[in-house]
Structures are given as structure tokens and as C-alpha cells.
Design brief:
The chain is mostly helical. The protein has helices at residues 10-21, 46-49, 68-82, 96-103, 114-127, 129-139, 141-146, 152-165, 169-172, 193-209, 212-219, 233-240, 246-271, 282-291; strands at 2-3, 25-27, 54-55, 90-93, 187-189, 275-277. The chain has a 6-stranded parallel beta sheet with strand order 3-2-4-1-5-6, with helices on both faces.
Amino acid sequence: MIAGPTAVGKTAFCIALAKRLQTDILSADSRQFYRETLIGTAAPTLKEMDGVKHSFVGHLSIHDYYNVSMYEQDAIRVLNELFKKNQYAILTGGSGLYLDSITEGIDDLPDVDADLRKNLKKQLEKEGLNPLLEQLQVLDETYYHSVDKKNPKRILRALEVCLQTGKTYTSLRTQPQKQRCFNILKICLTLPRQQLCERINQRTDAMMENGFLQEAKSLLPYKHLNALNTVGYKELFDCLDGKTTLDFAVDKIKTNTRRYAKRQMTWFKGKGDYLFFEPNQLEEINALIDIN
């Protein structure tokens, strides 16, 4: 598994490694699942893929409902098929929750009633996050203290489960870790902070040159969808709505992407079971894989 913050160089590294190992790549980057957002999520192009098969890149529409539990089931099915003919597979991404769904498994939480989900989303749009957080504190104080209070997706999911089951979200998430029929080597790519920030700035500029603004403009009517509630699109939607200038929006994308990368690194360092390498250490990682 090759993890790491956004813009660290996972795509090029994994393609080079996949060629060495003669295998496929599975993406665990939830931002790159949607075919309408390939520019703004820096998804690998066909040219960049260079003949290496990728799963879970642009396989959904922003209008599709998808969650981490569904991803776990789909990805495990792909891996089981891949291991019938390959010794190795490469899982890569920066979405910690989606990576964990493969390495540790996601708790078997219930499907939520569509009307309940719709009502909670309406409440979020009308009242904002604070009333929902207050409700979560009452229903599951333990999870309230640990959840990212700026992440509406996770807050809504916890509330859905609490309201549907009458149990705390915490109690349903503390099931034993699932056993996998394959060995997992966890590697996190990293770079010095200043170098990563420069890469983020350069990549943002390249995305703008490649048509990111036009992509965002085509998606403006759907800005309420959860798939578009992410760094890059939110800032450009404000620009397109006349709330900010384009220069301000681009600067904000760079700032918020740097903050996002910092949160990602905090997640990976906090897990305690990752080995850290820089993207130029392909030979060292290849040797490590051979040993394992």
C-alpha cells in the first residue's frame, strides 16, 4: 500500500512500481472516483497511466450514491480476482478512511433510510453544522469528541446511524478488525514541508491551465452534491457565484490544499504502522517488498 499526502508524487511512483511488479493499481482516493471531476482531483490521465490498469478512477458519476462500505466490498472483490494471477497488488491514495477499509475493514453499519438521510441533509443546508453537532453530542458524546467537526459527511453519517438504530455510532464501530487473506505492507511517501508546498502550488497552477475552471463551471448547477464538497471546487464555485475573484480563489485552493496535506500526514503518522520514504526511493522500497 502506497499512501501519502496530496501532490507528494504517488501517481508517478505507483506506476513505476506497478511496472516493476507487473501488476495493477487500485485507487483509494475518494476524490478521484467521479468521472466529472478528473481535472480538479488531479486524477491520472490515460497518458500518465502509461498502460498500467487502474481501478476506481472515474468509475462513478457525482450523482451516484457511494460510501466507504461499498468501496470496501468492491475493492476486496477486485483484489481477490487480481491475486489469482498476480503475486502483488498496489493500493494507493490519500484518503485514510478508504485505505483503512481495506487494511482493517469497515464495521458492518446498517443501510440508512433514504428519507432520514434527505431530512438531515436539508437540516444541514438550512441550519448549518452546529445544530447537528449538538444533536450528535447528545446521541453519542464519545464520537462527538473525536469527530472532525468541520467534516459534514462524517457528522451526518454518525447521526444517521444513531437515529436509525437507537444505538451510539461508537458502539457499532468497535467491532474486531477483519482478517484479510493477503499480507499488507504500509508505505507512506513524504517530502520536506517546503518542497511539498511548492509541489501543491505548481500542481494547482497546472490544473488551472488544464481547464479546471471550465470543469467547475460545468458542475456549478450540482454544487450541492456531496461529491463536490471538496477543496478546489468550493473555492471556484464561490468565484463563479461572484463572491470572490479568480486570483483569490486560486490562492485559497493552494492554502486549503496545503492544510489538507497537513491533516493527511497527521493521520498517517498517528497510525503508527507506516514506513516513511521519499518518492525518489523506489529502489529501497522495491528491495523492502522483495524481503517481505
